[in-house]
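Single Protein Entry

Contents — chain, fold
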Amino acid sequence: MKDNLKRILFIASVALNAFFAATYVTYKLPSLAGVQQGAPKGPLFLQLDLTPDQLTKFNAERDRFHTQLQVLGQEVKTKQLELIDLLAAKPPDQLAIEKKQEEIQRIQGTVQDRVIIHFLQASSFLSPEQRTRFFQLIKGRIETSIQACPPWMRSDGQGQPGECKNQ
């Protein structure tokens, strides 16, 4: 009886995590949500006064990075759909679910690694002043972006824009 309860709770937890991950993607990424709350408009490179040579290098790095993210994003989506199929199975295979969850986490870790490498590579073309400005702009966008919480959990005008309640 206890094992069944543990299984049910674990499956519910995984399902909620999948739901919150989908909500995060929907509300965190402005291109998907169609919203930019207080975030500076336009690409960062337009705010850095790049030379033509810097712009060429920056664009090449950006394009390479976006291609990598598209591939990894599709991989995450595929694994999430596979996870949902595993959750829907009767009876659910606990080990297969855990393995799929680990695969998704591994890919998400790879995405984070690629973001860091991209920031370092993109900033390597910049002068010290431009580099400082680059990271200030990134920090500003993070500070003013919608937080990873669904709309019904966002605070009403208190704290930072998009801040979740009970933080």
Observations:
- The chain has two domains: 1-39+145-167, 52-143.
